[in-house]
Amino acid sequence: MALNLWRCVMKRAEARWCLYRSLYNSSHGFNESEVKRKLAELSGGSVKLCKGENGIAELGISNSSRKNALSGTMMLELEERISDLEKWKEGKGLIVYGTEDTFCSGGDLNTIKAISNAKDGLMMCMFMQNTLTRLQRLPLISVALIQGKAIGGGAELCTACDFRLMTEGSEIRFVHKHMGIVPGWGGASRLIQLVGSRQALKLLSGALRIPPEHAISIGLADGTLSSAADSALEEAQKWITPYTKGAANVTRAMKKLIVCGREHLFEDAIRKEKDIFATVWGGPSNLQALSERTKYN
Length: 297
Ligand SMILES: CCC(=O)SCCNC(=O)CCNC(=O)[C@H](O)C(C)(C)COP(=O)(O)OP(=O)(O)OC[C@H]1O[C@@H](n2cnc3c(N)ncnc32)[C@H](O)[C@@H]1OP(=O)(O)O
Known about the structure:
Layout: H1 2-19, H2 32-40, E1 46-51, E2 56-62, H3 72-86, E3 93-98, H4 109-114, H5 118-137, E4 141-146, E5 149-151, H6 153-159, E6 163-167, E7 171-173, H7 187-195, H8 197-205, H9 212-217, E8 223-225, H10 232-244, H11 248-263, H12 266-280, H13 284-292
Parallel strand pairs: 2-3, 3-4, 4-6, 5-7, 6-8
Antiparallel strand pairs: 1-2
The structure holds propionyl Coenzyme A.
Propionyl Coenzyme A binds next to helix 4 and strand 5.
């Protein structure tokens, strides 16, 4: 009876959570089907998702002839993979990585050229903001594993993860200024939240190269990985494990608290904290812990 009531509370909370995932819909002038049709014509590369039995998924950006640039079809695939992750109730963590020697070289310049008019550019911008905001709001603890360069939109993509791990010799760089543009995939707003407005202004207006030590010193990155390229994913899995250990519903509830605290005004956030608290209180993990009476000394 108590467990059924708890399941009911949890189902309602999950449903409410789904309501505020995307930023734009038709009421904002966003025509999703039209932008999807255009992006589908701009092909190359792929975005692969592998969901592990340990609750940690790996999302691989791959476009080997273009340094993992995101083509139109890859933008669509990225959105599909995020939809898949939103439905993955056993999930606890996510590692986003680039195959071979680059994290991501940003938007595919061929795709960008094909949609360089104002209307298409704005639609693509809203599509990518929706996708990366949904990535950031996933109830999974996410890590961007940066091997090689994260450039332009690639730098924006890595800011949508909770943590950034960089291998030696890697680099994050917002090169938008040199392209005569500014970030539009939400990268500037997220960068300000991560490093503050003064640092963000320096990084964006100087299009500065950000190596691992600099990224760590300003709070943009969370660690440097020392492993060789082929074992970096394994090292990232080890790094994330202390944060994802334990019951999925508790890890997911923790991440939801962080999203609420970050995105809502204090009063709104603290009310949402109550709703999320109700999804774990009296649940199986809680009852188990009560019966074990663990000490933390
Ligand atoms: C949303 C806003 C945006 O993201 S705007 C896009 C910002 N990105 C860029 O401008 C990236 C430009 N590319 C570069 O700076 C270099 O190619 C980087 C990524 C540093 C790699 O240098 P390097 O290791 O010397 O390789 P390379 O230049 O020979 O490149 C190999 C092939 O890949 C291609 N490539 C690279 N980046 C892109 C891209 N974003 N879109 C399309 N193609 C890209 C290069 O053109 C090159 O192709 P090819 O072998 O000459 O045919």
